[in-house]
Design a protein that fits this description.
It is a single chain. The model has no long low-confidence stretch (mean pLDDT 84). A hairpin with a 6-residue loop joins strand 12 and strand 13. The protein has 2 helices and 13 strands. The strands form 3 sheets. The chain has a 9-stranded mixed beta sheet with strand order 7-11-4-1-13-12-6-9-8, with no helix packed on it. The chain has a two-stranded antiparallel sheet with strand order 2-3. Strands 5-10 form a two-stranded antiparallel ribbon.
């Protein structure tokens, strides 16, 4: 029986196009479902912590030399010349809280620098209980630990480390041992 009969060739091809359209729609629906499910699954298990450097400079930078000569800073009965401040923000910008850390968040300082002070300036929310604890390393240098019990999504703290010597942003690495987090966190420039 010829296809180009009374009803025409289009009459016989329409069911074939309908079948192809149905199969293509089913495949597109399955692919879209898998992609959306994968996205929301990853989002639900995502933990992420970031460090942003707000300030990293010598304390006396840009000061008039005559004024600088008259300023003296003493630390443990010895004069300190090269005082450097390193202020940074740590924030949980993931979707899940960070808790039960095996080892606390730690900033290691180079051996050629001397830690003068480490303090948590503020935390969000207030009273989160983040503290700065200074420790000496047996191999030289020092480290500052920032233990916390819980850091929910969107929460964080601002800390400042004052030292004799220098600390470049590229050399500042925070380390943490916690579930689903990378062991090392780079300090990025603060986005203004």
């Amino acid at each position: 029986k010829p296809l180009a009969g009374r009803r025409g060739i289009l009459y016989h091809l329409v069911p074939m196009y309908a079948l192809l359209l149905t199969v293509a729609s089913v495949i597109a629906g399955v692919v879209a479902t898998v992609l959306v499910s994968k996205y929301y699954y990853r989002r639900s298990v995502a933990k992420h912590i970031s460090c942003y450097v707000q300030f990293a400079a010598p304390i006396f930078a840009g000061m008039d030399p005559d004024v600088r000569k008259q300023l003296k800073i003493f630390y443990r009965d010895s004069e300190v010349d090269d005082v450097f401040a390193f202020q940074f923000l740590v924030v949980n910008d993931g979707e899940r809280p960070i808790r039960d850390c095996i080892r606390p968040l730690t900033l290691s300082l180079p051996s050629e620098s001397t830690l003068l002070d480490a303090v948590v300036l503020r935390s969000h929310p207030e009273g989160r209980g983040v503290q700065a604890e200074a420790h000496s390393d047996p191999a030289g240098g020092s480290r500052v630990e920032f233990p916390f019990l819980l850091l929910n999504a969107g929460e964080g703290f601002v800390a400042r480390v004052t030292l004799q010597g220098r600390l470049r942003r590229e050399d500042a690495k925070l380390r943490i041992v916690a579930d689903d987090l990378p062991p090392e966190i780079d300090c990025e420039p603060y986005p203004f």
